[in-house]
Amino acid sequence: MTHDWMPSSPCGDGCLPSAPERAGLARVAARCAMLAAMVLSLPVLLAGGALPGSWRRSLQRGYSRAALRGLGVRLRVRDERGLDLEPGERGVLVVAGHVSWADVLVLGALGPADFVARADLLEWPLLGTLARRMRIIPIDRARLSELPGAVDEAAERLRAGGRVVAFPEGTTWCGRAYGSFRPALFQSAVEAGALVQPVGIRYCTPDGRLDTTACFVGDQTLAASLRRTVGLRRLDVEVLLAPLEEPGADRRELARRCERAARAIVGADLTVQDILDSMEDRQTAAA
Q1: Can you tell me the distance from the alpha carbon of 40 to that of 62, in angstroms, rounded to the nearest whole number?
Q2: Span 3-58, pLDDT tens digits
Q3: Is 216 within 8 Å of 227 (Cβ atoms)?
Q4: In sequence order, what DSSP letters do the residues of 84-130 get, joined into one string?
Q5: What's the rounded mean pLDDT across residues 209-214?
Q6: Which Gene Ontology BP annotations are present (predicted)?
Q7: Most CB atoms within 10 A, among 102, 114, 190, 205?
Q8: With contact defined as beta carbons under 8 Å apart, do 229 and 102 qualify?
């Protein structure tokens, strides 16, 4: 059941590049072999739940980094957090714009965290088991009444000094255009007195041009998105760790602050109307 609050995005196939630079067959085969090996080794990661916390976190971080390498994605990080606000024993809510399923690997490669994720992920084969072991906080976008429970769970983990990752747009966009940061999940940081870490994520070519190939939007399937990403000659992802933000008392004001900080790296240059016009042009050409 949908409702007015449920996030939606106009992004779709019209946002994808028409002629991305492709990798050679040998390189694609090597990446597929590495990803297959990682799938086979998933039981090791799942068994990590029985390991000490520091070992489990290192295992998850290493797995995320290896997965990015297997996809041919190179990670570049710009750390502008500064020294004015130190996390110490305080929890940290990490918030970022949402472009792709690869965002989870990118943020997982930077450090251990509990993710707020779509509830139906728990029902996926294999990935659902992995999600449960990674202690995701499920959120059902179609059931607005369940949102306070997710906020309370996030606040509890933040009070315990944990790191929680959320994508406040609530859905994926193409990377050239973005939705607004919705304030609901920021309430968890306000209630817990936790710091907030805005993160900017930008997928680009090696020479720095924005690349929308990795976006996961519209009616795409995960398999199709994986094939497209693995087939690229190379994809870089630039990550901006913006200065930490104090929560304050107003979640809406906090959401606006964090959105501005996260957008500093991306410089969104495509409006929603541009996306709709592009989709209409493609439909006209196909007819």
Answers
A1: 16
A2: 455 677 888 888 888 777 787 888 888 888 888 887 777 666 656 555 555 666 77
A3: no
A4: SS--TTS-EEEEE----THHHHHHHHH---EEEEEGGGGGSTTHHHH
A5: 88
A6: phosphatidic acid biosynthetic process
A7: 102
A8: yes
3 state SS of 280: helix
CB of 3 closer than 8 Å to CB of 144: yes
State the residue for tokens 């966009």. 173
Contact by Cβ (8 Å): 253, 95: no
The per-residue pLDDT for 130 is 62
**What pLDDT is stored for residue 85 in this prediction?**
58
**Residue 170, Ramachandran bin (φ over 0: left; ψ between -120 and 50: alpha; else beta):** left
Contact by Cβ (8 Å): 110, 179: no
Nearest to 266 by CA among 103, 113, 116, 109: 103
As given in the structure block, the two tokens for residue 262 are: 């996260």
> 157 with 198: CB under 8 angstroms?
no
Q: Which residues of 99-134 are buried (b: 16+ CB within 10 A; e: fewer)?
A: bbbbbbbbbbbbebbbbbbbbebeeeeeeeebbebb
Tokens linked to 66: 């290896």
Model confidence over 252-284: pLDDT tens digits? 999 999 999 998 876 544 444 443 454 455 445
Instruction: Grade residue 137 by pLDDT with cuts at 50, 70 and 90.
Output: confident
Distance from C-alpha of 95 to C-alpha of 117, rounded to nearest angstrom: 12
**Domains of the chain, residue spans:** 21-286
Residue 48 confidence (pLDDT):
54
Q: Is the pLDDT of residue 201 over 80?
A: yes
Per residue, the 3-state secondary structure of 50-73, as one string, reads: HCCHHHHHHHHHHHHHHHHHHCCE
